[in-house]
Backbone:
């Protein structure tokens, strides 16, 4: 493998030869493809490969990719182009300026996984750091139609028992299409409705697909979930896909299964980037679901009677994992999304929210949302089937009859007085140092007659 000046010389020669070939066609097909293959290898590292990343180099690759009658030459050039757009962001605008939108979108219509993979990646990369007009790609060049058609093909492939499990290209192409769909619906929200008909295909793949992944949300599973995040799941036409009459909970069960597996596989620092979208999709599926599906989701995600045998959030269940992550200081995005989900599962009712998760977990969320804390939340467990007569601690959510009682004896009056004196001195010092500016609570208690100083000869009654 060449490096340094030798690599630069070889790259310069290849770019020059392939550029001349565009006008004179002086290379045989196998020579052209061999040159592009060699250039691809050099282009994996931009050091000493400068000619590839110039305007001339990008134009040469683009013309071979989209003007060549040979599918092999086209794909070889596309691989080089993908590497260039990935490694050097300035090359993306160079590509957009060439005006190949029509040919790019037209090539995405090919019924070929290699073309789908490569062209989807090219468009995906141009959604960053360019002035590409996504609305025009959708309205004029029918990009949404091509994406939907490709997802339909993947849905049929997923349901085909004869499909090959050794060929990686279908799953790779699917992942690139889903990433492209997510980015377009994120950056071009005004055209999100153009992709509504992709929802049934995504759901089919998500529920029926069997993918060899190391972690639950590895591609293509994670991108399948992410693709649903920006789409409108309230559209009437797609309700039967989200909640099929034969098994209305098929999608919600699949999503919750992924969440349960994810809770055991991802570390705190991974949660924001991997699991947050899954929580958001579960929230959307619940929000638009029929009542029986909502009851099913709540039964799996809200604390159960088994969880209330101890303080909420301390068991090993999925509801406890959600509660613990609603206060996770490391995963701020997930923390917020989990609280939103639990509030939705409580019908956005503050009292029911407190009853479901306890004051401890509810208070911070309600405060941040400027929602008044309910003062008279019931101390009995509420669920979808009615009210239980078994009382719970409204702060911890634990059944009162299972709370552990303290073995520490109650303080004597003299001990209480000493602790009050310590508190008084502490507040005096904090005020003197300017750390706080509130009234000393012990002084206030004395002035209001709620604090009685014991005489020196006081003796506590002892039974």
Residues:
């Amino acid at each position: 493998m060449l490096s340094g000046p030798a690599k630069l010389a070889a790259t310069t020669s290849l770019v020059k030869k392939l550029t001349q070939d565009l006008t004179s066609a002086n290379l045989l097909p196998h020579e052209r493809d061999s040159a592009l293959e060699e250039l691809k290898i050099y282009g994996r590292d931009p050091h000493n490969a400068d000619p590839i990343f110039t305007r001339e180099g990008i134009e040469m690759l683009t013309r071979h990719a989209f003007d060549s009658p040979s599918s092999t030459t086209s794909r070889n050039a596309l691989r080089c182009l993908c590497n260039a757009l990935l490694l050097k962001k300035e090359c993306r605008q160079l590509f957009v300026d060439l005006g190949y939108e029509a040919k790019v979108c037209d090539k995405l219509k090919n019924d070929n996984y290699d073309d789908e993979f490569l062209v989807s990646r090219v468009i995906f990369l141009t959604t960053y750091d360019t002035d590409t007009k996504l609305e025009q790609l959708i309205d004029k060049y029918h990009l949404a139609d091509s994406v939907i058609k490709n997802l339909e093909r993947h849905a049929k492939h997923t349901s085909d028992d004869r499909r090959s499990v050794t060929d990686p290209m279908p799953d790779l192409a699917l992942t690139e299409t889903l990433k492209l769909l997510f980015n377009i619906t994120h950056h071009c929200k005004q055209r999100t409705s153009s992709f509504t008909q992709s929802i049934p295909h995504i759901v089919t793949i998500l529920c029926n697909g069997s993918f060899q992944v190391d972690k639950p949300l590895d591609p293509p599973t994670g991108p399948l979930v992410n693709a649903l995040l920006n789409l409108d799941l309230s559209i009437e036409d797609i309700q039967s896909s989200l909640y099929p009459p034969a098994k209305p909970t098929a999608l919600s069960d699949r999503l919750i299964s992924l969440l349960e597996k994810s809770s055991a596989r991802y570390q705190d620092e991974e949660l924001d980037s991997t699991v947050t979208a899954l929580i958001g999709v579960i929230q959307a599926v619940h929000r638009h679901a029929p009542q029986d599906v909502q009851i099913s989701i709540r039964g799996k995600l809200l604390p159960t009677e088994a969880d209330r045998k101890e303080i909420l959030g301390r068991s090993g269940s999925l509801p406890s994992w959600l509660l613990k992550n609603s206060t996770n200081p490391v995963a701020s995005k997930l923390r917020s999304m989990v609280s939103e989900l639990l509030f939705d599962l409580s019908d956005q009712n503050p009292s029911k929210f407190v009853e479901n998760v306890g004051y401890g977990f509810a208070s911070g969320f309600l405060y941040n949302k400027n929602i008044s804390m309910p003062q008279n939340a019931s101390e009995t467990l509420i669920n979808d089937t009615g009210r239980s007569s078994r009382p719970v601690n409204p702060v911890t959510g634990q059944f009162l009859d299972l709370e552990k009682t303290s073995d520490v004896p109650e303080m004597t009056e003299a001990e209480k007085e000493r602790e009050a004196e310590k508190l008084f001195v502490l507040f005096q010092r904090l005020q003197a140092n300017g750390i706080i500016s509130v009234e000393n609570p012990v002084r206030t208690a004395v002035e209001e007659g709620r604090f009685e100083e014991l005489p020196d000869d006081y003796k506590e009654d002892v039974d």
User: Anything to note?
Assistant: The longest helix spans residues 4-24. Residues 343 and 349 are 7 Å apart (CA to CA).
